Amino acid sequence: MLDYSTLKLIWWLLVGVLLVGFAIMDGHDMGVGTLLPFVGKGDEERRVVINTVGPHWDGNQVWFITGGGAIFAAWPLVYATAFSGFYWAMLAVLWALFFRPVGFDYRSKIHDARWRSTWDWGLFIGGAVPPLIFGVAFGNLLQGVPFSFDDYLVSTYTGSFWQLLNPFALLAGVVSSAMITMHGGMYLAHRTEGDIQRRAARAAVGAALVMVVAFVAAGLWLRFGGIEGFVITSAIDPGGLADPLAKTVVRSANGWWANYDQQPLLWILPALGVGGALLAGILVTWRWTLTAFVVSALAITGVIGTAGAAMFPFIMPSSTMPNASLTVWDSVSSPMTLGLMLGATIVFMPLIVLYTSWAYRVMRGKVTLAHIRANEHNAY
Asked: What is the C-alpha to C-alpha distance for residues 313 and 296, in angstroms, rounded to an integer?
C-alpha cells in the first residue's frame, strides 16, 4: 500500500501527464483550427484541413475532460480556488469551445459561402482562444494569484478579470498560443500535400520561432525582471493532512530557480522546449513530417515541464497571503480518494491510449482534394 506522501507525488505527476497529453492531443487539432482560415485558400482546401482532425477532435477532448476531473478529485482546494479566481477566464474558454462541435457538425450542411466562412472563423476562435487563455493562466500562477483563506478554508479572490491580462501573463499566452499553432502546423504538414502542406509547414516554422523567442523572453523576465517566486521556510509534513495554512511561505527573487539550482538535470526541460521547437521546424522543412510532429510533442513536454519543475511543490501560490499558497502536500484529497482514483487510472488510461492509437492508425494517410471531391456528402 502506497503511503500518503507517495500518493500526493504520484498525482502531481499524473496531473502533469494529463496536461501534457491534453496539449499534445487536443492541442494539435486546436492548432489546426487556428490555422484553418489561413492555410486553406478556398472551400475545398478548408474542407481538407477540417477533415484531418474531424474524426479525432472529440476523442481528443477526453484529455481535457479527464484533466479537469482529476484536478477536481485529487486537488479539490485547487479546483475550488482556481474556478473562483479564474471564473470569467474559464467561461471564455468554454464559450470558445462551443464553436467546435457545432462548427464541425454544421459547417458543410449548407452549401453557402457566407455560412461556411462564418463557421471557419468560429472554428478559428475555438482553436485559438483556449491556448491563449491557458497560457495567461500559467503566467498568473507564476506571479501569484490574489486569494486568501479564512479559518474555515473558505477562499476569497480579490483580483479581477482584467488584472489577469498583465504583460507577463500575456507573454505566457503568446508562448502557449504559438506552441499549439506550431504543433497544429506540424500535424497538418503530415496529413496534407501540395500547397496546403507547404503553407502549413511555413506556418509551423513561423510559430516555432515565435514560441522560442517568447519562451526565452519569459524565462529572462522571471530571472531578471523582478518577478519573485515562492519558498516554503517552515517544516512541512509531506504525509500530513491537507491544511494549507499550516506552513510559512515567503517570496524570493530566486524562488522559481531553486529547484534548478538544486537539480541541474532539470535544465533538460527548457532545453527540450527550445531545441525541440527548432529541430521540429528544420525537420518539417525537410518534409520529415511525422518525425517533426513527434519532436514538436517533445517540445510541448519541455515547455510545460519547465513551468511545473520551477513551481514544485507549489500548484497555486497566493500573492496576497503567501502562507495560503496551495502545494502538492497540502491541497489534496484523502488517501482513500487518491488510492481509488489511482486504481481507476491504471485501468482506464491505457484503454484511452490504445483506443486513440487504433483510431489514428485506422484513419492514417493523407487527406487530399481528390478525397474531398469524391466524398462530397460524407466528409466534413
From this structure: 27
Dist. CA 236–CA 232, nearest whole Å:
8
User: Please, are residues 316 and 141 in contact by the beta-carbon 8 Å criterion?
Assistant: yes
pTM: 0.93
CB 168 within 8 A of CB 174: no
Summarize pLDDT for 103-124 with one digit per residue, the tens: 888 888 888 889 989 999 999 9
Sequence-distant (6+) residues with CB within 8 A of 135 are 169, 172, 173, 174, 175, 176, 177
- Contact (Cβ atoms closer than 8 angstroms) between residue 128 and residue 176: no
- CA–CA gap between residue 201 and residue 288 (Å, rounded): 11
Please give the DSSP secondary-structure letter assigned to residue 26. Answer: I
- Residues in the chain where the model's pLDDT stays below 50: none
Three-state SS at 197 = helix
The neighbour count for residue 166, using CB atoms within 10 Å, is: 14
Q: Are 368 and 193 in contact (CB under 8 A)?
A: yes
State residue 167's pLDDT score.
95
Task: Give pLDDT, residue 279.
Answer: 97
Which runs of E-coded beta strand occur in the chain? Answer: 147-149, 155-157, 229-232, 249-252, 314-316, 326-327
Report how far residue 156's alpha carbon sits from residue 137's, in angstroms, rounded to the nearest whole number: 18
Cα-based angle 330, 142, 304 (whole degrees, multiple of 5): 90
CA distances, 59 to each of 56, 65, 302 (Å): 5, 10, 24
What angle separates helix 27-39 from helix 194-224, to the nearest 10 degrees?
120
Residue with cell 500526493: 8
User: Residue 277 CB: number of other CB atoms within 10 A?
Assistant: 29
Q: What are phi and psi of 317, to 5 degrees?
A: -75, 150
* Cell triple for 181: 499553432
